[in-house]
């Protein structure tokens, strides 16, 4: 596995991780919220099997990447373009999970000459859409978090500071308890073993790097994204589970209806975490075919 510290056009630094086949086509991963650009072992193994060059980066404010205060979702496309240029990659595909989903869609919308295909798994849809009740169906914890984000920077900082305290001495039982209102049965069953350890590692980066990336993500989700998803023209897949309490099923339905080029996997038996734990090989297979 390789790591890079890549300088952006405005002088920030992005922490990038690379695994898989260095000679294969590049796939850029956008992590969830909160999180960091840490790759899951089975995803790396799958990338090797499919001869994919798998890259993940920590969004600004996360995992060693310089904060970009006031960023919007569209800014991710510029960061990814800077990564591609620095690593001499002409074209890539991309996928994002949960809070990474909008950022993958930003790349699809704004980098059509560089991004061949994109997948959004358990992604939030844009806040304020007239035909979407953004909070309906969310677990209580996420309703409280997004409600704080809607009140502004001071309110969400206070909310996330309290949430981050629960991550100070994190173990799997503590993680399960902290997400109790968000975990459907299928997701709770998934949060064990190697996958549970991977999520613990990802969430634990908040202890080291603080809440700034998390805060900036939440604020970006509830303000204009900086692009219109209906303008996306490249191939897109939308994955959403009906058992998802983190991001309601209606968000995936909305994205499918408003992205003309999208095909959907709106699965009755999936939750939120199950998509990340089990569906990425199918995502990689589909993305690989677009090179």
Automatic annotation (TrEMBL):
Q: What is this protein called?
A: Pimeloyl-ACP methyl ester carboxylesterase
Q: Which InterPro entries match?
A: AB_hydrolase, AB_hydrolase_1, AB_hydrolase_fold
Q: What is the species listed in this Swiss-Prot or TrEMBL entry?
A: Sulfobacillus thermosulfidooxidans (strain DSM 9293 / VKM B-1269 / AT-1)
Q: Which SUPFAM superfamilies match?
A: alpha/beta-Hydrolases
Task: Tell me any Pfam family this protein matches.
Answer: Abhydrolase_1
> Domain AB hydrolase-1: where?
25-275
